[in-house]
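Why run this: before we spend reagent on co-expression, it is cheaper to look at a predicted model of the complex and decide which construct boundaries make sense. The entries below are exactly what would go into the expression plan.
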Amino acid sequence: MSMRFAQWASLSPWSIVSFSVGSLKQILTNGYALIPLVYTGWQQGFNSPWVLLVGLGVILITLTYASLQWARYRYRLSDAKLGIRQGLVFKRAHEIPLNKIQNVRLEQPLYFRPLGLYSLVVETAGSKQDEAVLAAVNYRQAMLLKKQLFPSQAIKDNSESIEGHNEAVQADRQTIAVNTDQSGRRGEGLVVAKDLKALLIFGLYQNNLIWLSLISGSIIGQVDWESLGQNSLVQGVWHWYQANVATGLVYQILAILAVLALLALLLSLISIASAVLKYYPYRLSLRQGTLHRTGGILAKQQDALRLHRVQLVRFEQPAIGRLIGRWTVHFEQVKGNEIEQLSKRHLLIPSMTQAEIPQAFKRLDNLAAKANALPTGYQGIDIGWFWRRAALLVLLPIVITSIVGINPFTKLLAGFTLVALIGLYLNYRQWGYHLEGDDCWIHTGALGQTWRLVPLSKTQDICISQTPGQRRKSLANLHLGLASGPLVIPYIPLKEARLIAETALNLTRQDPKNWI
Amino acid sequence: MEDVTPQASASMQARHRLEQPDWISIDEVPLTPLERAYLHQVQIENLLIFTPLLIIAPLAAILLNLPGGLIIALVTLLLVLAGVVSYGRYRYALSFAYGVFDHEFIMQKGLIWHKKIALPYTRLQHVSLSQGPLERYFRQHTLKCFSAGSGNAEISLPGLGDDTAEPLRKHLLAKASQKQATGEDEA
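The model came back. Tokens follow.
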């Protein structure tokens, strides 16, 4: 290890910018409830001197705080540890052993772009303070740091740690695999690249309507419906609707469908834009058993993940994606304590067709799972799963109807129950598993579908559970505990559950190396 | 799908190992039930939970001047509830069992959802023993085994006596470090 970073060093003063933005962001995200307040302030007039004063005060305080943060921030790299000291009132000192680092990411936020500076984000698994950020480092420094923090160290201490061993073994395997590879050096090379069109498609099918409708809900709440009704344009549209559309039921249904489609398209546009801004130009490459992702227009990102740290590969296909035959591939790693934060950040490949998946996965030799292509079918679960839940679901409307009799409320309840039953049935139809060598595929979904590729060697604990009813029919629920989270395959034949459980136990018995 | 053939052979190997007589499935191996002292502890816990309730509820009902019929109904309901819950807790305590094996630790629990959990030593990250006030009186310990990822314990086994808990913890830790050490040698 070079002595370059061995002494305690402070960051460049430019990091004040990123500290300020960070605290502003925190204020804004925590102050989401403030938006209506600001809105009313806007209604009352913003030119009051108080608003200006408060704004100035906030900026001043943020800047001072950021400068102090910068002044107290020290980091160093020594003894195979990354040390960080920070904090004004509550002092914090981190020591992150280099072999516990999960992921090193290079980010270029918009405000650093003109300066050519980057933020280096170091992620660890399971720690409470999940990451360390070294802000405002220049490219050369960032690359140097990254090299020292990330893959190179694993090769360096070959003889000391098991991890080094793994890496070495894997590196050997890789050199064999690389002979067929076009690029000469140890499997280096591009695995997947996605152009603008693919990302547009990705944005279209991976449409998080729920989030957007949640946000739009709060906006709609702000609209003054009364005065909108007085608006001549709205009244004109309403009259046109009454005259032309409301004449027949078919027309009305068509009109509602058209409005819904328009809304979906609008939301899709937002999601498409965010997909392109976040990922374009998408490039995923493999170097020394590590996946690197680059891309992003607004904030240039560089993500890295060691392949043997991947716990589970998830192939996801939302309903629209199913129609156009595109998959999103997620690589899930160890779940940390901050579940939401970490799980959102895992590496993904957008917009993969069925044929592209084997091409990409053939290259990923270090992955614990050996399967390359999606399976063609799956073993479904027992119908008992559906009946048990359906019985519970139907019980409520039946009891209520028998007490109060048939009225609009119970009719509505029955309607909801019917929809829920259909959803439940779809879930039942799609739930299944497929054992392929030492890998277990789990299929789930309702309208969309998801394949989870579980390398059984990554399982941590196994649980077979049975209710008395299941025991009579010799069925069982199988729970697989993985570092990325628990998985369940319900209502499968006991024999199959035992086979999967024993295969997993067999693999883990012989595999004491570090799996996370 | 050209990789299917070697994968199938790997699975055949795994399946072959299953057929050996010593590979009894995890839900068939004989396990050790917990000590009687834990059952006593659970019964005392039940008493401690329900006795105050059964005293306070009628008193409060009388003070509130509720009609006599209602009080009787309330007390019967409480008694039935106490009986059912206490019996359920007793049976649940009976359902616990554990076993220490060459390669994994296995425990079972559950009345309706009968669970058998296996945790291989190679995946054991951390073991803890804890003791509440009542457990201290009964000389009982709760053993928790953790693996990576999730914050909660994969295995949580109450009712281990003084003479088993500490040796068991030491044994698990020793097994875990031994397994992980042999892995280091082999690799």
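The longest strand of chain A covers residues 485-493. Chain A has three domains: 3-149, 204-277, 310-381+431-516. Bring this page to Monday's planning discussion.
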